[in-house]
Amino acid sequence: MDWNSVIGSTAYRRQFTSSSPRKWGxxxxxxxxxxxxxxxxxxxxxxxxxxxxxxxxxxxxxxTVDAELRRVxxxxxxxxxxxxxxxxxxxxxxxxSARAEDLWRTTCFELFVAGAGETYREFNLxxxxxxxxxxxxxxxxxxxxxxxxIEIETSLDNKRLSITAKIESEFPDPAPxxxxxxxxxxxxxxxxxxxxxxxxxxxxxAAATRSLLLDGVxxx
Length: 220
Hints:
By secondary structure, the protein is an all-beta fold.
């Protein structure tokens, strides 16, 4: 598969829809979007909302995290950007592109995908190039590895850390999803970012995190 042609093709620009009536203003998106009065929020994939920092974690060197997810044949392409003073960001060293454990203990980006019933999947995407893919029977219960092929490209400068992850795996159609980030900084604190949080302490596994809907239009 020629992933570069897939990523660049406008034929694979899809939409995210949220059943929530929340209005994302210019501060929440890269560009204004049209919200049909008779429908829930529709978000064009090229203009995904910013992730929000959990209110219990203080501001840090990274002031913005945004993400984009595109459905492509055989899976999805996820892109994340952490923007700010990256000299104060802890970035894991480059590693072999292979499955690894405990990637969330330092800077890492994640995708959560709801399945049937209480099941859901978690994809950990490290700037190092390492990755993980799990399925759970219910909230943090019954974890097991799932088949996936993941390729991660990372770029870093003094203002931005970016990753693009090509994920070959099965995704429901449509798919309730959540986009999250673990950001570790040199002050020793870990800050948690997500498209949505459940009340209380940060918990990316909570169903409330999976608040966006990857549309039911197949990319095949």
